[in-house]
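REQUEST
  id: r-88c1
  op: predict_structure
  target: Sodium:proton antiporter NhaD
  payload:
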Amino acid sequence: MKKHSYFLFLALLLFPFQLLAADTSTSTLLDLTGHWVGFLAIAIFVLAYSLVIFEEKIHLRKSKPILVAAGLIWLVIGIVYHQHGMSQLAEEAVRHNFLEYAELFFFLLVAMTYINAMIERDVFDALRDWLVNKGFSYKQLFWMTGILAFFISPIADNLTTALIMCSVVLAVGNGHAKFIGLSCINIVVAANAGGAFSPFGDITTLMVWQKGMVEFSEFFALFIPSLVNFLVPAIIMQFAIMNGKPKPIEEGSHAQIKQGGLIIVGLFLLTIITAVSFHNFLHLPPAIGMMLGLGFLKFYGFFLRKQHKKETEENPTSVSTKRPYDIFDRIAQAEWDTLFFFYGVILAVGGLGFLGYLGMASSYMYGELGATPANILVGILSSIVDNIPVMFAVLTMQPDMSHAQWLLVTLTAGVGGSLLSVGSAAGIALMGQARGHYTFMTHLKWTPVIALGYAASIWVHTLINGF
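RESPONSE
  id: r-88c1
  status: 200
  body:
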């Protein structure tokens, strides 16, 4: 990589620039879309994202290539603008992109920390065991896991929710590959659909909310279209589920919520309310409210550690094997690969936008195709490419379209990833968790049914929210 960077640096210094922008004043951006420098940036991004798409095959974490791509793209931009005495413009642009990332980073870090704290307190394991031992049939479990995925993902995020519900399916579906596969498809669709009508359900909805395109309360206008997106394929798939009931797990192996687990759930809900209030009433970044909520959790973590120490002193035999609660362990177990991937996406796509490519794409998609076809296409692209760069590109373009169209693109970017197993973080995660039972081809067989739900949700949105 050093060798390639050195060659790139020499090439940029030696080759002349024939730029479309003749004015090098600080008020004019250079148009590099038709120059080989712009083409090089596109090639870097495409190569890096190709490695991201094949993450499962080559076992290279997705953050690595996109981090390198972001750095190289801004290296190209920095050298070009420095040569034209316009370094300040490049600096302002990259700082703007970095600030956007910083706000989302701290928001997501707090949310991930709370989810990890609930996992450590066995909140979700207790929910899983409760479902397993309630005596539900396979069809009832198919619906229960789907419905819970739909209603938990708006709070806990679609990835975490999908993993929790998949653990239930794996626990009860031992030896029933078809049940596991169909249930995993249902969970992915439900989690993505549930995440589409909440700012906390998906990174794309969080970006839309923080950007101010859709207010917090306005997301709930997408509830019915999202519900339709989940119900249409679920109703059809249920006919392929077997009859009968799974065996209950052995008595004594039930998970119990550890001390403070339910209080942490309450603190998480309070933190969400705090973040929403900061944004809606004080017009401050919601990340500030989330960091306040992290303070709540850290204080409560201090209480749990003191309680553990007291119990150890009083009865060392019964608690000696229990590890004390440590908030920094929860922070350390955040999805750092996702957070760094998110950094690379924002900086790389922001760089392509600064070069002028997003303006070109916006003119074609929203100018020639029109807002509705363009926003439907965004959802389809989200099933092939991750929805994060697609949505960030749309937000960077900021096309002039109605509020109903912003709601539409929020919906399609959220649920479009369900069309393929690789189209969402939930699908990719479940392919690993239910390896051999839930695969790309298993999901692809039901893509026409999922596409029917995708089309139905858009139609319902037009009826309810209009254009």
